[in-house]
Amino acid sequence: MKLTHDKRAAALFILPLLLTVGVFILVPVLGTVANSFLRDVTFLPERYIGLANYRALLNDGAFWQSLRFTCLFTLVSVPLELIFGMIFALILNQALPGRGVLRVAVLIPWAIPAAISGRAFELIYNYSYGLANYLLQNLGLADEPVNWLGTGWGAFFSLVVADGWKTTPFIAIILLAGLSAIPEELHQQARVDRAHFLQRFWRITLPLLKPVLVVALLFRTVQALRIFDVIFVLTGGGPGGATNALSLYGYQYFVSGDFGYGSAISVVLFALALVFALLYVRASRFQEEMR
Amino acid sequence: MSELWQKRLLTGLGVAVMLLFCLLPFGYMVLTSFAQQPDYLGQASFQFTLENYRAILTAESLHFLEYLRNSLIVSGVSATLAVLVASLAAYAMTRLPLPGKGLILFGVLAVSMFPPVSIVSYLFQVMNTFGLINTWPALIFPYIAWVLPLSLWILVSYFAQIPRDLDRAALIDGCSRWQILTRVVLPVAAPGIFSTLLLAFIFAFNEFMFALMLTTDYQARTIPVGIALFQGLHGQIPWGRIMAASVFTSLPVIALTLMFQRRIIQGLTRGAVKG
Q1: Is residue A264 a part of any domain in this protein?
Q2: Per-residue pLDDT at A3
Q3: Given this model, what pLDDT does residue B274 score?
Q4: Of A66-70, A215-219, A249-253, which gets the smallest average pLDDT?
Q5: For residues B137 and B78, what is the distance between their CA atoms, to the nearest angstrom?
Q6: In CATH, what number is assigned to the domain containing residue A177?
């Protein structure tokens, strides 16, 4: 009696969650998939066209450029963020004076909305009076100002830095939690054995941190694949579509009123992200069971 | 050089680089917000002014305060509702006989990784049908769903730590499940719920793509979109005002982060990357 009562309570308590996620995330995703099989353009009657949108994608040079950029951006930025995040975490894990202040400083980039920090970086990369060129020229690293946002490689590099500014501290915080879970005795033993601190890092810290690193890596991969805010603000996908990430490319079709083609682009990104999302869920699950 | 000194030198260098990296862009934002002309690093010299702040706070044509109001209301309401929904679910998951717990928990985690672009166009069509485009509800509903996974993960981890004996004692005293949740578990979990609320608020406050697509002007547009689309009249970008608006917007979030640093870090690591 009590048990069936509890089961009913459980169903009631979980229902709002399932409803909200179902109605506002799962249904829209399925709706987008359905739209991708339609010719769904403003002012034209809707029509089922099967895989025509996807076939059009295959011959769309801008789509391939967008896909290539998205993958390249992910491949470059995620490892860099992990490496620097690791270094930051190792520093934050030291018994330093003012450790609390350091942690707060690291949280500031994380707390500022990406669209806002994007605008700050837009000014930083300004050709004639931005901070980036000012520092480069005054430190004698460059004679001529660099055209950060006007060239393909400049824009790519600028985006990696602007995105990394926000995400590296976040990774550091996550890795820090993993670091502080490593028993101090292990390090002490290694010190007794006269292991150098770099050796201790490679032999003790890194292997023990591997599960956390894998989770962070997969999490960041999915986030990098779906990047939007920073690019929208900083380069708008330019110059000449060089930084037009898939999210932005799909969005541009929605804005111009072509929901069918935009949906097809979104579905491709969704499928790509889903692979890593499922790997990520598996890794987190594994980590959860280890606890 | 001894190992201790090598380590100290490396750490000192690392601290300097890290602080510079994290604080320099924000410092530049603050400095520019007080500059009469943004080109003080170029030909001109720096001249202090409060004009940029005066402009964003008083010039009605900029709609800055309206964007801010929309952001606070939309993020506040959706974070509160999300935490409410997540508390109910987390209670069921940690205390009640629920089939498929793992499936729900990890399913929600997978859902949180979906790219917003694969949701936003359909949401736009639905909101358009109901005439909700450019209203607060158009953002509140998707935001609840958007911050739910994070809230759920953090709260499940908090609730799991509360001793079950408390529930049992209350059950024996004749409390219903609802009473146990509201009178026993929630008060004990209050600090955890507060951290979750804070994180959910910051996540909703930072959201961009839904706000960009589902609003059209100052009546519902949120501040990140407002600042992203902030343009000058004659092609000249009003950097001073943009930076003043950015600093003004970031300060409350930064203040919250400063005040509740421990809780935020705890929440982030409990939801372990599950944003």
Answers
A1: yes
A2: 65
A3: 44
A4: A215-219
A5: 9
A6: 1.10.3720.10
What CA–CA distance (Å, rounded) separates B199 from B263? 9
A98 touches chain B (CB under 8 A): no
Q: Which residues of B touch A106 (CB under 8 A)?
A: 18, 22
Nearest to B155 by CA among B181, B119, B128, B116: B181
Angle at B261 between CA A277 and CA A211, to 5 degrees: 35
CB-CB under 8 Å, A120 with B29: yes
Q: CB count, 10 Å around CB of A193?
A: 9
Query: What three-state secondary structure class fits B231?
Result: coil
Confidence of residue B234 (pLDDT cuts 50, 70, 90): low
Cβ pair B212:A102 closer than 8 A: no
The answer to whether position A5 is within a domain reads no
Please give the tally of structural domains in chain A.
Answer: 1
Chain position carrying tokens 């059009």: A56
> Is B77 a domain residue?
yes
Contact B148/A at CB under 8 A: yes
Tokens for A51?
Answer: 């895989």
Q: Is A183 exposed, middle or buried (0-12, 13-18, 19+ CB in 10 A)?
A: exposed
Helices (H) and strands (E) in chain A, counts: 14, 2
User: DSSP letter at A41?
Assistant: B
Which tens digit of pLDDT belongs to each residue from B95-133? 888 888 888 888 888 888 889 999 999 999 999 999 999
B92 within a domain of the structure (yes/no): yes
Rounded distance, CA B246 to CA B248, Å?
Answer: 5
The count of structural domains within chain B is 1
**Domain assignment present for A79:** yes
pLDDT class of B272 with cuts at 50, 70, 90? low
- The interface predicted TM-score (ipTM) is 0.90
Question: Measured between CB atoms, does B244 come within 8 Å of chain A?
Answer: no
pTM given for the model: 0.91
Residue B68 belongs to domain with CATH number:
1.10.3720.10
pLDDT category of residue B233 using cuts at 50, 70 and 90: low
- Residues A28-54: what's their mean pLDDT? 88
Report residue B134 CA to chain centroid gap: 21
Q: Can you tell me the mean pLDDT for B247-254? A: 90
- Whether B108 sits inside 8 A of A17 (CB atoms) is yes
Whether A254 contacts chain B with CB within 8 A: yes
Residue A170 lies in a domain: yes
In a domain, B12, yes or no: no
Within a domain: B70: yes
Q: Which domain holds residue B91?
A: 62-270
Q: Tokens for A171?
A: 């990774």
Residue range(s) defining the domain that contains residue A193: 36-290
- Among residues A66, A73, A270, the alpha carbon closest in space to that of A167 is found at A73
